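## Example record

The block below lists the input lines for one assembly entry, exactly as stored, with component labels intact.
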Amino acid sequence: KRGSRRANGGVPDGKQPTKTDYSRWRLLDERGRQTWHYLRTDDEVKKWPQSVADKYFLGLPTGLPDLKTSTTPLQAVNNGLSFYSKLQLPPGNWGCEYGGPMFLLPGLVITWYVTETPVPESHSIEIKNYLFTRQHEDGGWGLHVEAHSSVFGTALNYTCLRLLGAHAEDPRMVKARGKLHEMGGAVYGPHWSKFWLAVLGVFPWSIVNPTPPELWLLPDWLPIAPWRWWIHMRQVFLPMSFVYSKRWSYPPTALTMELRNELFVEPYEAIDFASHRNSISPLDNFHPKTWILNLINWIFVHLWIPYLLTKSLQQKAEAWTWKLIQMEDANTDYSNLGPVNGPMNLLACYIQEGPGAYSVRRHRERMEDFLWVKSEGMLMNGTNGVQNWDTAFTIHAVIECGLAEDPRWKPMLVKALEYLESQQTLENCKDHEVCYRHPTKGAWGFSNKDQGYSVSDCTAEAVKAILLLQKIPSYPNLVSERRIKDAIDMLLTMQNDTGGCSSYEPRRGSELLEYLNAAEVFGRIMVEYDYPECTTACISALNVFRKQYPDYRAKDIETFIQRAVSWIRSDQRADGSWYGAWAICFTYAGMFALQALRSMGETYANSERVRRACQFFLDRQMDDGGWGESYKSCEDGVYTQHEKSQVVQTAWVCIALMEADYPEVEPIQKAVKLIMSRQLSNGEWPQEAIEGVFNKSCMISYPNYKFIFTIKALGMFARKHGDMVLQ
Ligand code: LAN
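Predicted structure tokens for the full assembly:
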């Protein structure tokens, strides 16, 4: 028990309340920009009443009525929609918590601390609540909410809590420290935690493996040039390399001095930090560094930086990275690509332009876009929201149920259409070739237009939703033919040479770049890969489009689809399954792949591969009729049963089997019954296990999936097999 004294962020012990008043939180959605506000005065509370959605997100009673018990799938759908429609936000989109990763808040809180950004008390209280709620029994935190404790999770979240005023002698902190020390202390953390702790001034920079900005000066033709890396890696590397080049650290404070005592097993002065550059706990070492990367790091540390790097070259590199940072900021109005580069860009602006700069102010405002409040406290979302994605999927689900013209749901869908219309990116961003951005004209991103990064499947699902709705005569034509064609043009740029599609851009570099993966905690992050999810979304949007516009780029579309479907076929494993990259896991990918095959007329009756895929699922159906897959499937690449069936995965498999025209109704009916039996009397489905994933190892929540896919599966069933009485 070292370093307790007085460091609780300047807040006198016991003075800060431990909970905010949840009846005062409000979610504001301004054309898709979502921010939470804590109302201080009763007057404000009166003027801005809490909505049902606010209450639901905060875990407060919603007051929504019990509904007539459903006995058929369509009744269950209507009950589900009756609940879910109340969560639609005023601009027409859906939103939700998008948590899971446990390494995001620390980056933000450290950035707030070192940029001396005032943190509202409401935020600091609820962030602490969230972190304490999510602390494991053993005292630590993991990479994501369900993961085992690691040095990454524990060292950073411990630090985050201390910066927000948690007392070192709080029993929960003592326990966390105990766990951290048991794992060897913070010197065994991965690269990103070393970076953040160096910024905070708790580590010297000598423990951080180099991220030299000079790499940005490499010629574009070089196979390792950073513009070829997966967008999230290069956009994080960018500000990281800038800050690294400056070796910028916050000057010591009483609190950071205490952290130097708390985070390590040995006394700070006795640690040879440089020798710990490559130290990493086996609990964190999900993706060990290769010998090539270790050699490159060695060359940087022992030759390049001390002997070869000239001042002028370093300045040139810093100037160019700074320019690229500014372009990223300008192109996204400081929203930035995501929750890791957002705080880092704020820090870079603070270093370069000082605390009073507009860039710093605007970044500070934008940090709010990532925060979310729920019953457990305040967390940082994996993006600035899920707006476009969940809204498009919701539209598809209602259409699949055959309810798009039902007067009960039409106003909801018109609003959703209006929302999607408002979020299409109409232009490429300024100087997009200079800053290596893929064209965005006609595209949709995952969240909103401010962020504005084109994503293949987000564009595909959005344009498909629009095409399907606008085809119905009673719906308004909000998105013009020209704009729809722009979206299609964009999609047609997204195919890889393999025929498959990636997430943000077609692949720009070789898979061999994975040898340079320095993150240690993530796998398959250095370049874009082909994904069955993204590929299917493109196929299916193009198919819908060409039915309505048979003359537009017909040949390009036909070639695209043929190549994409062959890629889907080639990606099937011998056991009949497909590995999913963006949700857990084989159940998710199988649903997409079978949809793609169906669009080419391949079903159970005529295709051996479809039969194999169905068998794969049937062999894994649980006794209660459901499917349940653990996140371990993503890490290990082997289907791993969850201990309990999950409504979301059950729905995915039902949809998959129906896409395949699986001939027997019995297994699907059993699953549909299970989905119905899990529905509550107000139409809601309760939250079960986490649904999503990225980079193989990090899980992320998609709480709306328990509405979207259950509703879709039940609706499809009713349309295919009849709306029979099932319970
Ligand atoms: C997302 C969220 C959405 C997701 C889908 C659209 C579902 C997918 O089909 C394509 C990829 C995409 C857009 C995606 C990519 C990676 C993201 C942005 C995330 C999983 C959300 C969070 C994650 C991001 C990388 C988190 C920050 C962490 C880093 C390692 C930088």
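The longest helix spans residues 311-331. Strands lie at 25-30, 33-38, 371-374, 377-380, 692-694, 698-700.
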